[in-house]
Amino acid sequence: GRTDVFVMGATNRPDLIDPALLRPGRFDKLLYCGVGGSSHAAGDAAHQASQAQIITALTRKMTLSPGVSLERLAAACPATFTGADLYGMCADAWQRAAVREVRRLAELQERGDAAMAGREDGEEGGCGGVVVTQEDFEEARRSVVPSVTPEMLTKYEGMRAKFA
């Protein structure tokens, strides 16, 4: 019967939903999932912890330099960074580290470095792999343009008040 039907929808523009869908008995529950900075002020410990958790998840397969502080990185990120912005920052940081590693290996090969000769990947003196540093993250953070402006955030908060 009809009791087995469950419908869920998602949108980033609730203002464009046909009002007929919002009548009682249709979508009975509306849930606002805001931008990271919408529920916490920039500099707020809970907001920084949330961003640090997202960054930790995004970097779990990366090799990080021992001096990397994801908490410090999260504290430096704007409150309006979305999950996509954080992903872009982490991907950019890894790419910077990869380019540096490729250049290092090219220089070793160009010099005919004995340390490279006959070594397998991962062996001492050989290809150490891509290691992301704090500076890679900081440069990447500075290059990311937040996809949500403070004005857009204000508009989204207004929609939350209206629809949630």
From TrEMBL:
Domain ATPase AAA-type core: 4-33
Gene3D superfamilies, per database record: 1.10.8.60, P-loop containing nucleotide triphosphate hydrolases (3.40.50.300)
UniProt cross-references to Pfam families, sorted A to Z: AAA
GO biological process, one term: protein import into peroxisome matrix
Cellular component, GO annotation: cytosol; peroxisomal membrane
Family (UniProt): Belongs to the AAA ATPase family.
Protein name as it appears in the record: ATPase AAA-type core domain-containing protein
Organism: Hemiselmis andersenii
UniProt lineage: Eukaryota, Cryptophyceae, Cryptomonadales, Hemiselmidaceae, Hemiselmis
